[in-house]
Amino acid sequence: MSEKLVIVTGTSRGIGQGIAKVLCDEGYHVAGIDIRPGDNTAQLTDGNFTHFACDLADPAAITRTFAQIDDVYAAAPWGLVYVAGVGPEIAYLDTTPEMFDTVMAVNVRGMFFAGQEAARRMRDAGVGRIINIASTASVQGWAHMTAYGASKGAVLLLTRNMANELAEHGITVNAVGPGTIDTPLAANVMANPDWVAAELGRTPIRRFGTPSDIANGVRFFLRDDADWVTGQTLYIDGGFLSCGGPSLPSMQGHRSIDR
Asked: What residues act catalytically?
């Protein structure tokens, strides 16, 4: 993997920072895009990381940033990992147009146009890997996360449509769908003990995820030998989506259920 360039968005903290570190450790060159400073991530990545400041809600800024990456690396990206996202925790009836537009601008529109910029360069190179970060919220409803859920549902279908159109250019497009990850984005809900108990009660592997858990899924989709995998979403959630109800100590043993 040495010398391959991967562009990762949202690298200043959380999942994006964890992905950047894992990829740099493996020898990739990582161009990190984030509206926040990238100093902390640069300190974790031992020289293989370059930060580019960009507001991903602005398509013109995305175009300029990809041109800057061209100037620095003079190479088409092998991969794009779109992680950047915002998720206000607010009731559906209280969500304002401004909140909704901000979520869609970063989580969907930014992904759409960053994907375009990367895919044009990958098309010219004849190969590429695009990985979008979806969520269990792509397929599961969450209270007070309606705008976020709408955006992540869009990511699921955007990934499939991109995969359909870009395959002819040698580009695969897949998604990783995290469950609840211990990052600043989840800090508020994870401070609520009732919410934590309910969430872990439905998670067979009884812990929250870490950025490195998600990075491992990204690593798979970036591999050379993953070239017959496209249009797929890999949910890394400790088993949350598979669990209609938890397995509790009080449920051990056989009990018949009448219908």
From this structure: 148
